Each structure stands twice: as structure tokens, then as C-alpha cells.
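Support case: pantoate complex. Customer-provided input:
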Amino acid sequence: MQITRTIAELRAALDQRGRPAFVPTMGNLHDGHLSLVRTARARGDISVASIFVNRLQFLPHEDFDSYPRTWKADCAKLEAAGCDVLFAPREQALYPEPQVFKVVPDPLIANILEGEFRPGFFTGVCTVVMKLFSCVFATTGGGVAVFGKKDYQQLAVIRRMVQQFALPIQIIGVDTARAHDGLALSSRNGYLSVQERQKAVELSNALQELACETCINQRPLAELEAAAIEALRDKGWMPDYLTVRMRENLLPPQEGMREVPLVAIGAARLGNTRLIDCLEF
Ligand code: PAF
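Agent response - structure generated as follows:
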């Protein structure tokens, strides 16, 4: 695996090597990331991963400084997964001056759910992803980019961005990798205490239950969602949202329209750790 630190090094490494398939990450890699890399290997001529903890997508009180940086382990995992090129720019290489031009996504999809609880988050994500796309694809004439479905809204926002800017990039969403008990793999799982780790699967269980109720229970969705939130709160969580949305645009389905492709999506805090998860149904 070739490690590149600057945009020029990355572009030189990709020169004449066909269509890249790209996996952007913030490091602290787990099996979920590695399944994205395996997908990338199957979908492009050359697989590229990036590791960059993007300051722009963290609010001042969030965990930018403490976000786990596990460089050696990450390199070993990427190497073992068969990644061809790693792009790991230092902050100065990606943001040599304050990034004053930003990509502001459509508020209809970006200011709901995560965007409501983490204002500006998707502007930070879109800005860095657009810049990373420019680093990887500007000289290759396009390619493929691979994202996990766990960050369901992020995937939807990026699909919209690529569509609206007519970027020559095919976006692929990969199913969430889960631990043996069903907990969605996440870099933030490492923040959980032993007791919290045992309880953590309750979020995905709550989403399964909500999806199930949506299919069989004719009560209004708002009531089913409120009951799901209450039940999780009773178990000691602090839920931000648990809701059923249309997969297509993440808006609530109209009552009587439960036959369309749906996703149950949720975010909740357990102790000091905020987890998100989702379930398509
Ligand atoms: O999902 C992530 O890890 C990040 O949001 C991403 C896409 C790498 C942008 O920083």
C-alpha cells in the first residue's frame, strides 16, 4: 500500500491506474470500514482510502480533540484488506488556509435528524468530501466512492450533492457491519464502558421494534415513535430521535403510505457516548 500525504503525491500515485474506488474515513478503523475497502477493491481499478479527522464537521463541544487516532493499527488493517493507496493528509495539506468556501447542502435533507442536533455538521461533511473527491477524482475523470449505510443521512446528503453538482462519481452504499449481538460497528463504540457496551444493542433493538410496529400496528406513526423514544428513555438512554422515514428523501411518510421503502433511524446518548443506527425495511 502506498501512503500519500499531499494532493500532488496522491494524484501522482493514481496517474494512469484507471478508475479509482474511494473510501473516505476519519480513521480508527473497524471491520465496517474494511468491508467498504473490500467493496472498493471489487468496484474500481485501484482502491483508495483516506484518513482525515475533519475539524469542520465537529461542533465546539464535540470530540474533535479526543477522536481516536490509531495510525499504526489503521495502516496495518488497510494493508491487510488490500487497499492500494492511502491518502492521509495533515491538516495543513488539506486546509492550507481557512476553508472559507463551503458546500452548504439542501436544508430539506441536511437540517433534519442529525442536522437538527448537530447544526452545520453536513456542511462540514460535504465540504471535506467535495475536497477529497477533487483530490482523488479531478485527474482521473471520475470513479466510484463507497460509504457505509450506518450513516444513512450522510449517504443520502452525499448522493444529493453528487447529483446536483453532476459529479462523475458513482456512490455505493454498503450495509452496516454489526457485532455478534447486533450493535452497529462504530469508531465511537470504543468510548463505551463495559456495562454500556452490554446495553448498547438496545438502540438497534428499539429500531427493529419500531420497524415491526410500523408494519403491524395501525396507530399513527408519531405515536409509535413517541412510544419507542419513551421505552429507550426508560432503559436509561437519552434519545435525540427515533423515527421512520422514507428512504428516498428521509421525510416522514404520509399516514396510510407505509408501503413505500422505509428506514427506521435513530440517535441516542448512552452516558457520554452518542450512537446512531438505522434499519431499512
Ligand atoms: O463518515 C465519516 O467518517 C466522515 O463523515 C467522512 C465521510 C470521512 C467525512 O469526514
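The radius of gyration is 19 Å.

Case will auto-close in a few days if no follow-up is received.
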